[in-house]
Amino acid sequence: MDLNLTYLRDDMTEWFRTLHRHPEPAFEENFTSGYIASLLKTFGYEVHEGIGGTGIVALLRNGSGKKSIGLRADFDALQMQEDNDLPYKSETPGRAHLCGHDGHATMLLGAAKFLSDHRTFDGTLVLIFQPAEETQLGASAMMRDGLFEKFPVDAVFAMHNMPGLKAGSFSFHDGPTMSAVDNWDITLTGKAVHASMPEAGTDPVVAGAALLMGLQTIVSRNLSPWDNSVVTVGAFHAGTVPNSVPESATLRLSIRNMRNEDREMTLRRIEELTEYTAKAYGCSAEILKNVSGKALFNDPETTAFAASVAEKYFGSERVTYPGNKYMASEDFAFMLAEKKGTYLFIGNGDTPQPHNTAYVFNPEILPIGATYWVALVHEFLR
Length: 382
Prior knowledge:
alpha/beta; eight-stranded mixed β-sheet
């Protein structure tokens, strides 16, 4: 089958730049959702809006086939400042598409347009445009709204750009592929005092420093080097001036595990270390446990099929299978816990990593990703 999407290059560029200029964070993607929905309607899709807040599901049926396939793209942005000179730079200060979700949505839109124009499948196509991936809440919100009950699929797929992989190449990994994430905030409370009289107070900064170093022993001294866990303290907030011991100190943690038993041990040890370190330094401690993610598991049979499609249409030299697994997290894991499917990676080339203020989604891969989606649908819904 000839998959020539070059006629959509200008349209995809326009869609991508529009989305990039108007970044919106989790569950605030009103412009983004409306813009995507309006395009899908012009393509001829049956469009359902407001699924899981700002999510969209679009249906296209062709032929008499009974099978259905789900393709998912995320579209939320980050609350970060973009640091580049793109002609289509974010127009909203402090918000930017620095993970490539604008590119993911555009690739799926390109595939949607081609599939509507050419109808190269027999069955039902279910396009899922998901909000709030960055908060690990969007997939679950759509599922609570009856995503798979209202719009059943035989398998569901998603794709993420990956800096460091050759632009336009593909990587697949079956089984455990991305980690579960827990984001915890630990607040240590002591007694504020002037810096010249530390003996009259209780210093939560010292306690926090000790706790920070202790946390780094959890993985190195409780897990085998062959297992995968990460405990990162990404923020440590305490005080505002140099001549005062503050009342409290807060550590913000990102905790990632591939296996549930490792996750249980890691979280238990964090609680124990927090309790005993706080007591040792005369402080009290409180842990705020934010929403937990889930480890992402790719169905082996479906992943092998998805990789074979990439090899067939792009050549084996552009496909890595099995590829790497990653300690990053992805809330598509919640969908894969309910439906078989796979989460694959498309190379973004030599660019900064996502969540970096200098990150740039490579627009040259837009038609490549869209072409892969079309090929996957054609092969799955033959």
